[in-house]
Write a structure and sequence with these properties.
alpha/beta; two-stranded antiparallel ribbon; about 30% helix
Length: about 230
């Protein structure tokens, strides 16, 4: 930041109150958008997905536990990778520790990756996370939701971010599922790319500061990001 404008407290309060009006308008728009998100129709899940978990092989329904809703982080960690994606790890730091709060609102959280379970659990321990993490390496779960390619190199028809393109073997996303009244499971929402932005607490804290994210001069926006044990 260079040559910031320095003003009196009264001048600052005038500007701050003007911005507050815009912030309140934005919050009302965000509330309206969230209501539209919640009112999206539901797609019934027909596939019997199976996952490797700490308690053995589990079904998709098992991931909900006793809860009605399930949030899934599609975490980029390919079958032959030695470490998880740094960017997905950056987001995961915002999710660890939220499980008890989500559970209080009848919602479970789990990360799903294509790497073998042993790698996932070792990486989770290394970075100090507490959320559940399961392996989908024997299923097409992540591929069906447009964040991974199938074993033959093809991708889902709507592919990544509903673009009909999949430019990498693994990409990030968040999906939301709900138990339906007839006992089946429904898919209510998925978001990718910049849609994940609102879920990163570090970014939103930086957005409150004068320097902001300070990424404009970087080679790419998240080139500064490291896994939480690699700073310093």
């Amino acid at each position: 930041m260079s040559n910031p404008e320095i003003v009196s407290r009264d001048e600052w309060l005038t500007k701050r109150r003007e911005l507050l009006l815009e912030e309140k308008a934005f919050n009302r728009e965000r509330d309206a958008l969230s209501a539209k998100r919640r009112s999206l129709p539901i797609v019934r899940i027909e596939e019997d997905y199976r996952f490797d978990s700490e308690s053995g092989e589990v079904s998709f329904r098992d991931l909900f536990g006793p809860h009605e809703q399930l949030i899934v982080q599609h975490f980029m960690f390919g079958p032959d990778w030695e470490e998880g994606c740094p960017s997905c790890s950056f987001w995961a730091d915002s999710f660890s520790g939220t499980q008890m709060h989500l559970a209080a609102r009848n919602t479970a959280f789990v990360a799903v990756s294509n790497a073998p379970l042993e790698k996932l659990l070792g990486y989770r321990k290394r970075l100090g996370w507490t959320f559940d993490w399961v392996s989908a390496h024997n299923s097409n779960f992540n591929a069906d939701f447009g964040v991974s390619k199938y074993a033959d190199g093809s991708s889902a028809p709507d592919a990544y971010n509903y673009s009909k393109e999949m430019h990498m073997d693994e990409l990030p996303g968040i999906s939301v599922f709900v138990k339906l009244p007839d006992g089946t499971i429904g898919h209510s929402y998925s978001t990718y790319a910049r849609g994940l932005d609102m879920l990163n607490s570090t970014y939103h804290l930086l957005d409150l500061t004068p320097l902001g994210r300070d990424e404009e001069a970087l080679e790419f926006s998240m080139s500064w990001v490291r896994r939480n044990d690699q700073y310093g």
